[in-house]
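Q: A reviewer asked whether we had any structural model of the full assembly, not just the individual parts. We don't, so I'm hoping you can provide one. Inputs are below.
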Amino acid sequence: MDKLTELKEQAISLSLYNTKDSIETLIHKAEQEEQTYTDFIANIFTGELKYRHDKAQARRVKDAGFPYPKYLKDFDLNFCRAISKKQFKQLSELTWIDGLYNLILSGPPGVGKTHLAIGLGYHACEEGYKVSYSTMQSLVQCLRTEEIDRRSRAKMNRIRKSNLLIIDEVGYLPINPTEGNLFFQLISELQEQTAIVITTNKGFEEWAEFLNDPALATAILDRLSYRCDRIKISGKSYRLENRKSFLNDGKDTSDETV
Ligand code: ADP
Ligand code: MG
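A: Here is a predicted structure for the entire assembly that you could use as a starting point for your response.
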């Protein structure tokens, strides 16, 4: 076995996967730049640390279970007038996650609630936080079946260990009393350990209706609101305003008004 192959095998045994893949480049660069021994070793360690950091970040994003990627950098504040530049900066700094603050984003469809929620979640993953995303419907399904279904149990375990839980589309579908109670229990359980972002098309006064229980709605909102910011996003749907068509060179020539 030649020396390089042996080194690569040793790198695998030591779990130095970045070094294993880039050993030729590292050596070549060291020779070219006439690096000191110290710099050579520093380059190996830095490469390995970056590789591990990137891998852990990718794993956190995957485990979060986002339905699709959305980034804060693509969120257009000129379109979304409900959030000031200052508020957006404060949200992006993520200190509210450590402070266990909740965030309730409400408004009609297409105004960017999910985009903002996923964007914050994605950024939190980058910054090392453990994040879980779920729609309300899927969360309720998991709560109902966690005793009997291994996958639901795994998802709930993950949610309970998260620093940030995003619950998307709260209020779109009515939920029954058992589901409402399970949801209340979860919110109570998480309130001292997890920051929660909720997106909803309902105002607080409408929660009683979709939960079919005014007392339960008050109890849930009481817990969520204790440390909480509410952002009501009103205005037009981004989708409708930026509607795309593949006919007629992408120009929308329909005269329907929406
Ligand atoms: P909601 O969850 O409020 O129904 P979404 O977040 O799903 O709306 O937004 C609908 C689409 O419009 C998405 O593709 C999203 O990226 C885009 N969008 C909405 N608001 C903005 C915004 N302020 N800047 C950039 N894209 C936006
Ligand atoms: Mg949405």
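A: Points you may want to mention in the reply: The CA atoms of residues 35 and 41 lie 10 Å apart. The first strand starts at residue 102 and ends at 106.
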